[in-house]
């Protein structure tokens, strides 16, 4: 269940970047104006839009989640530094806090993807151990069957009958359990110390 929740959360965080990158690419001139107004060099509108779009798609698809999470976290921190740095303005303060929350979500995506990769490594190792133990059990059983077959063959070669496995039969025990002078008969299996 936690894996499903992590996939949904990762998809929702990725949706922010996919929509933002697509909107930047659809209106390149206003994106360029906004970037230059923040004091950054011109010509970054298309690379920034492509980065957001492609990184968002990679995050949604679960492709290289740890690397993409780190790159997007650095990108979002840079947007706080360059675009939402006026913390006295309530609107800028809300936007900066939203970006901090996005960084937190990206950190969780990073951590959860690392946790699942460790889980899969442990599961693969355990599966290998179980397969090795199963192979050892099959080898031991085959050796035991071979030893039994060899013993039978040796017995037949010496004109003896092959050893067979005989079930023990229950023996009858007569005891007066209730001390009324009439013995009760009960069947009981032999135990190793009854021999």
Q: Specify Rg, calculated over alpha carbons.
A: 38 Å
Termini separation comes to: 59 Å
Please work out how many helical segments DSSP would assign.
5
How many beta-strand elements? 2
Structural class: mainly alpha
**Beta-strand content estimate:** 5-15%
The main pleated sheet reads as: 2 strands, antiparallel
Strand order of the largest sheet: 1-2
Q: Look at the structure and give the mean pLDDT.
A: 81
Domains, number: 1
Tell me about this structure.
The protein is mainly alpha-helical. It has one domain (1-189). The chain has five helices and two strands. It has helices at 2-26, 28-37, 45-61, 65-83, 90-157, and strands at 171-175, 184-188. It has a two-stranded antiparallel sheet with strand order 1-2. A hairpin with an 8-residue loop joins strand 1 (171-175) and strand 2. Helix 1 runs antiparallel to helix 3 (45-61), helix 1 crosses helix 5 (90-157) and helix 3 (45-61) packs antiparallel against helix 4. The longest helix has 68 residues, at 90-157. 13% of the residues are buried. The model has no long low-confidence stretch (mean pLDDT 81).
């Amino acid at each position: 269940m936690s894996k499903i929740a992590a996939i949904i959360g990762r998809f929702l965080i990725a949706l922010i970047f996919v929509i933002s990158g697509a909107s930047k690419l659809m209106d390149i001139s206003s994106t360029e104006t906004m970037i230059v107004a923040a004091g950054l060099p011109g010509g970054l509108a298309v690379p920034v839009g492509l980065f957001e779009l492609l990184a968002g798609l990679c995050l949604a698809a679960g492709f290289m989640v740890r690397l993409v999470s780190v790159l997007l976290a650095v990108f979002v921190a840079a947007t706080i530094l360059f675009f939402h740095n006026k913390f006295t303005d309530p609107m800028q303060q809300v936007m900066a806090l939203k970006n901090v929350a996005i960084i937190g979500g990206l950190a969780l995506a990073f951590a959860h993807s690392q946790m699942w990769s460790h889980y899969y490594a442990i599961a693969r190792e355990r599966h290998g151990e179980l397969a090795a133990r199963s192979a050892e059990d099959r080898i031991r059983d085959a050796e035991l069957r071979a030893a039994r077959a060899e013993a039978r063959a040796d017995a037949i070669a010496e004109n003896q009958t092959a050893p067979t496995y005989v079930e023990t039969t229950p023996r009858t025990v007569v005891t007066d359990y209730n001390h009324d002078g009439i013995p009760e008969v009960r069947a009981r299996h032999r135990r190793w110390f009854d021999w």
